[in-house]
Amino acid sequence: MGNATSSAISKEILEDLKLTTKFTEQEISQWYENFQKQCPSGRISPGEFEEIYARFFPDSDPKSYARHVFRSFDTNDDGTLDFKEYIIALHMTSTGRTTRKLEWAFSLFDVDKNGYITKAEVKEICQALFKLIPKEDLSKLPDDENTPEKRATKLWGCFEKKDNDRLAEGEFITGVIENENAMRLIHYEPIKH
Ligand SMILES: [Ca+2]
Ligand SMILES: [Ca+2]
């Protein structure tokens, strides 16, 4: 058994990824080559995924956020990311407002994967998001967003839900599309210096 056979990406995965991500065949093939070099097993573990995030966020602690992102892309729940799951992750986590990206954002916030978001889950993701923010940038946040709790309360408030209510995927997506604040608060975008 092993990885001696496939040096080229399978046609099926390639076509599938072209459709889902709009990346070109060349881009995907190039990534696949790199992926095989860096990850000969063909599977990314949670630890390796955290290391990838650590490279992008050298001034903060992206571990818990990386763990949530990993969970949301491990669609077959086998505890690893294969190439396809990984490329979709790359594509989805770049900021954007397509419905597919908002579907992903929903799955990120739906920590227990039960199809609904609670305020507690929003708080949990806000806590992870906060750890992405470098210390020097924390002081620049507006008063009503400068702790994970405040950010969670503000974000939850965008959906006009009571504390004990829960939020379905459709409500989440509509809410985010209709509310600039919600759109901004579900992501962390590094402040440009
Ligand atoms: Ca998987
Ligand atoms: Ca949930």
TrEMBL record:
<feature type="domain" description="EF-hand">
    <location>
        <begin position="61"/>
        <end position="96"/>
    </location>
</feature>
<comment type="function">
    <text>May be involved in the calcium-dependent regulation of rhodopsin phosphorylation. Binds three calcium ions.</text>
</comment>
<dbReference type="Pfam" id="PF13499">
    <property type="entry name" value="EF-hand_7"/>
</dbReference>
<comment type="similarity">
    <text>Belongs to the recoverin family.</text>
</comment>
<dbReference type="InterPro" id="IPR018247">
    <property type="entry name" value="EF_Hand_1_Ca_BS"/>
</dbReference>
<keyword id="KW-0479">Metal-binding</keyword>
<keyword id="KW-0519">Myristate</keyword>
<protein>
    <recommendedName>
        <fullName>EF-hand domain-containing protein</fullName>
    </recommendedName>
</protein>
<keyword id="KW-0677">Repeat</keyword>
<dbReference type="Pfam" id="PF13833">
    <property type="entry name" value="EF-hand_8"/>
</dbReference>
<keyword id="KW-0449">Lipoprotein</keyword>
<dbReference type="InterPro" id="IPR028846">
    <property type="entry name" value="Recoverin"/>
</dbReference>
<dbReference type="GO" id="GO:0005509">
    <property type="term" value="F:calcium ion binding"/>
</dbReference>
<feature type="domain" description="EF-hand">
    <location>
        <begin position="97"/>
        <end position="132"/>
    </location>
</feature>
<dbReference type="InterPro" id="IPR011992">
    <property type="entry name" value="EF-hand-dom_pair"/>
</dbReference>
<keyword id="KW-0106">Calcium</keyword>
<dbReference type="InterPro" id="IPR002048">
    <property type="entry name" value="EF_hand_dom"/>
</dbReference>
